[in-house]
Amino acid sequence: MAAKTVKQITFLWEGKDKKGKIIKGEIRASGEAVVNATLRRQGITVTKVKKQSSFASRSKITEKDITLFTRQLATMMKAGVPLLQAFDIVGKGHSNPEVSRLLGDIKADVETGSSLSASFRKYPLYFDNLFCNLVGAGEQAGILDTLLDRLATYKEKILAIKGKIKSALVYPVSIIIVAFVITAVIMIFVIPAFKELFSGFGADLPAPTVIVMNISDVFVEWWWAIFGSIGFGLWFFFYTWKRSEKMQNTMDRLILQAPIFGGLIRKATIARFARTLSTMFAAGVPLVEALDSVAGASGNRVYYEATKRIQSEISTGTSLTVAMQNAQVFPNMVLQMTAIGEESGALDSMLSKVADFYEAEVDDAVAAISSLMEPVIMVVLGVLIGGLVIAMYMPIFKMGQVVG
């Protein structure tokens, strides 16, 4: 049975050194008794120890931080810098104090005799199975610097492809939010002013004007319910999406079938699948074991389940190409390249070429979507805002014609 990982807590302490000078600091430990014992061994007389507040201002460790750390560690190890010294240099030079603290904890763990991969496994929030497996393979084979370099390249490419997907999605979503806010402001504040103006006309208003004013009345009376419902709906949707496997399966299938963005997401997922499997296989990780990390890195439940089926079939003796063909989620080109790689003994190289091809496809798709979305969004905004303005000015134009 695996030993249970002890939760580390950050403590703030105050004490006196051997010369009686008051010193302060912070330390991560499993409890206050451990803090006191550690500081006593350092010759410090502790006067105060308290937990750091969970509400204290702390920077978040991002995937970009981990990618940068991996590249820096790989570069230093290739240059011959000892592992612990490399951790020291990267930790002290990082702009994010949380990263420095994390690297300090890992370094302290390695100093007590733990392997680097075992130390990384204690922080699954930042280092996934793929990361730990590759580091472990590098330690066993004595090529840690080479595998760290390969891992850094992998993380940089995956980060780049995620960034491109986000850039393609953020623009239309932000425009939709802005359009909704502008429409709500017009409905709640502007149109009621026109309604007061039109009340003295004593004539029938055009149908579009009446419709817009009725919608405005709903907004004015129920704005709190409209905004509350939208806010709660979005929160409930994302909350359920994160925690419900059934919801994830449904949404991921719908996303892949979406008219414009579905193809982009599919290409990005295949690129991640190929890049991850290529990296793991090149590191000497057995195929069945590698597919565990590939499934987790796919980022889509459809491909996660397909990868698990592939893993199951391979474990019973089926070739990778046949198993992928049975999954029915991979294009013919991917299957042919995989078959060539298996026959020639260069599977990692062929999968890397597949990843390169689909990453380039993602680049082209993002560029095409960006150029397509701009005119579409302008037309939609023009029709929405322009339609509201015309509906409210129609009675004025009608009155002008009567007077004329």
Supply Rg: 29 Å
H/E element order: EEHEHHHHHHHHHHHHHH
Overall pLDDT metric: 82
The N- and C-terminal alpha carbons lie at a distance of 92 Å
Helix content: over 70%
Main β-sheet, in a few words? 3 strands, antiparallel
Descriptive account of the structure:
The protein is mainly alpha-helical. Helix content is 75%, strand content 6%. It has 15 helices and 3 strands. It has helices at 32-41, 63-78, 83-93, 97-111, 116-121, 129-141, 144-198, 207-243, 245-257, 261-282, 287-297, 301-315, 320-327, 332-344, 347-403, and strands spanning 9-16, 22-29, 45-51. The chain has a 3-stranded antiparallel beta sheet with strand order 2-1-3, with helices on one face. The model is unreliable at 1-5 (pLDDT under 50).
Descriptive labels:
15 helices, 3-stranded antiparallel β-sheet
In short:
With 404 residues, the protein is mainly alpha-helical. It has 15 helices and 3 strands.
Helices and strands in order, then pairings?
Elements: E1 9-16, E2 22-29, H1 32-41, E3 45-51, H2 63-78, H3 83-93, H4 97-111, H5 116-121, H6 129-141, H7 144-198, H8 207-243, H9 245-257, H10 261-282, H11 287-297, H12 301-315, H13 320-327, H14 332-344, H15 347-403
Antiparallel strand pairs: 1-2, 1-3
